[in-house]
Design goal:
By secondary structure, this protein is of the alpha/beta class. It is 41% helix and 11% strand. It has 15 helices and eleven strands.
């Protein structure tokens, strides 16, 4: 092919630079010959190109998609030629990116797919999904980074922050590109529970996530990762704080319009920060019965959905799966509508020793002194004090 081209070019050059009397004198004989040569060149080039393209398509599949596009499109066998054979990996692989264009209706529908056969036909290592519901930045991220380090196969992180907020974590951070598509969230309203369900649903898209822990930007871990993983994965119950509280801030928030689906004796209160397993996560995301009752009859300032909705619904449907206590320590001792926010002056070894040692609770039906794995609320300025004593006081 190359030889033909060269000859044609050389001849063209010759004709231009040194037209001989012989050539100009006999145009009628050389013209069809030239035409034939060009025709042959194009024919051979075309044949080679199509052979090369067929070879590449067969051997490299769709990897050179952009390069091959014009050829692929003109080819009638596009679909059959490129179909990748579906393997079980293609069903269990997590989505390559947390970004997607599904709205909540579509996302919740997809997230609640449940396999009917409970034995996984592959080696599944259950992960904990750590879900951070934030008002913006994560000022305590560095203690979490330390906590997660070395356990990459056992956790996933999801961050729901206001839609306008963009985190700038470096690629080496555990929080790098872990923000999910979010919606504005107003504390105390149904939009809060919507965001919690959105976090759950996004985390559920990865089939390896089995446990789901809701945290805020003011939470820190107070046990090492191994302890947290074992405690959560070996528990017979999910850690949803849930109790029946008499008085205006408990039963007083119940609205009779919720009956007969929800009766006063079913009404529960509990902290927002929970841990649930996959079964309960599906129940929360798929719910369409309780949701409208809470949306319509539990509104500020007489009722706050995040303290009642999941707690009450799960107590009615699956009471035997609930530990009825939270894993997150919080201090209400100073009274008022908000718990204590700890600042850097509060952070001392004695402070953590009290949280870790002065409690008893029930774990798998047995009394236990290990009750809390996380704690809140910590001010952003406490981070350096926490990092300084974390290794000694918390083993992190
Ligand atoms: C999501 O999109 C579908 C299809 O356009 C629509 O029917 C549904 O109402 C949307 N849901 C929300 C929450 O916007
Ligand atoms: C984690 O903490 C537990 C209990 O405090 C301790 O026994 C264990 O050695 C720690 N594990 C690691 C890997 O530090
Ligand atoms: C949690 O509370 C429910 C009902 O209020 C009860 O049935 C269940 O046994 C409790 N869970 C534990 C671990 O005690």
């Amino acid at each position: 092919m190359q030889r033909v081209v060269t000859t044609a070019l050389e001849e063209g050059k010759e004709t231009k630079e040194a037209p001989t009397p012989f050539r100009t004198a006999q145009p009628s004989r050389s013209f069809p010959l030239r035409l034939l040569q060009f025709f042959l060149v194009f024919l051979i080039f075309g044949l080679c190109a199509s052979m090369v393209s067929m070879y590449m398509i067969r051997h490299f599949g769709i990897h050179n998609k952009n390069l091959m596009m014009p050829l692929i499109q003109s080819s009638s066998c596009y679909k059959p030629c490129f179909k990748e054979k579906a393997s079980v990996e293609s069903w269990i692989r997590p989505p390559p990116s947390l970004l997607h264009s599904m709205n909540d209706t579509e996302l919740f529908w997809r997230a609640t797919f449940v396999p009917a056969i409970k034995d996984y036909p592959y080696h599944r290592v259950p992960r904990i999904a750590f879900m951070f519901l934030t008002k913006g930045p994560l000022p305590l991220a560095t203690i979490w980074e330390r906590f997660f380090k070395g356990h990459e196969d056992l956790y996933s992180i999801y961050v729901h922050s206001p839609p306008s907020y963009n985190d700038e974590f470096s690629p080496s951070s555990a929080f790098y590109r872990r923000q999910i598509p979010s919606q504005p969230t107003e504390w105390g309203t149904m939009s809060m529970c919507d965001s919690e369900r959105r976090l759950l649903a996004n985390a559920m898209l990865d089939l390896s996530n089995e446990y789901f822990i809701l945290l805020s930007e003011s939470c820190i871990p107070i046990q090492n990762f191994t302890t947290v993983y074992n405690y959560v994965s070996q528990s017979q119950h999910s850690f949803m704080g849930s109790f029946d509280e008499p008085g205006p801030y408990g039963r007083g928030r119940y609205n009779e319009h919720m009956a007969p689906l929800i009766n006063l004796e079913d009404w529960r209160k509990g902290p927002q920060w929970f841990e649930v397993n996959r079964e309960l996560a599906v129940r929360i995301v798929q719910d369409r019965d309780y949701y409208p009752k809470f949306r319509d009859f539990c509104k500020p300032h007489t009722c706050y959905v995040d303290e009642h909705y999941f707690q009450t619904m799960l107590t009615i449907n699956t009471p035997h799966l609930l530990a009825n206590r939270s894993l997150t320590y919080v201090d209400w001792s100073r009274g008022g509508a908000h718990p204590v926010t700890f600042v850097k002056q509060d952070i001392e070894e004695e402070f953590f020793r009290k949280i870790l040692q002065q409690h008893t609770c029930s774990y798998n039906g047995q009394p236990s002194s290990l009750c809390f794995l996380f704690a809140r609320k910590f001010a952003p300025d406490a981070i350096n004090a926490i990092l300084d004593i974390a290794s000694k006081a918390l083993g992190i």
